[in-house]
Specification:
Distance between the termini: 23 Å
Radius of gyration: 17 Å
Number of domains: 2
Structural class: alpha+beta
Order of helices and strands: EEEEHEHHHH
Largest sheet: 3 strands, antiparallel
Number of helices: 5
Strand content: 15-25%
């Protein structure tokens, strides 16, 4: 079982968060790719990362697992075409969650929930996907 522990960094005196496995051992950040999704998650090992994918997307095949070299995951907003400041939309995130990451289904749900047209729903869903729903 993973848990969050806090510790104080001595060099700068700021508080940082570390994910540990409850045994005091730090876990790693993994990139887990299935045939339809790319997930980022903390895991003790490749096997644990595969298990995470199976819990969330049991019908999908894991095609790649990569242990990240750093403790952060960085996505370039310019590479995704996101310009300016964007705020996550709770409705869009809820639709993505209910659609289990299926973009087209999430767009339909967003249209039903908000009454907006296809173009606005697509923009809202895609923007929130780029923000890491």
């Amino acid at each position: 079982m993973q848990q969050r522990d806090s510790y104080n960094a001595r060099s700068v005196g700021e508080k940082k968060t570390v994910i540990s496995n409850g045994k005091g051992l730090r876990v790693s950040l993994y990139e887990i790719e299935t045939n339809a999704h790319i997930m980022i998650g903390w895991a003790d090992s490749d096997d644990d990362a595969r298990e995470i994918a199976g819990e969330h997307y049991p019908e999908e095949e894991v095609v790649r697992i990569t242990k990240r070299p750093r403790d952060i995951w960085v996505i370039s907003k310019s590479m995704l075409g996101v310009q300016g400041a964007s705020e996550p939309c709770d409705v869009a995130r809820d639709c993505l969650s209910r659609a289990r990451g299926d973009k087209l289904h999430a767009i339909r749900l967003y249209m039903l929930d908000t009454g907006v047209d296809l173009h606005e729903a697509q923009r809202a869903i895609e923007t929130n996907m780029s923000l890491g729903w």
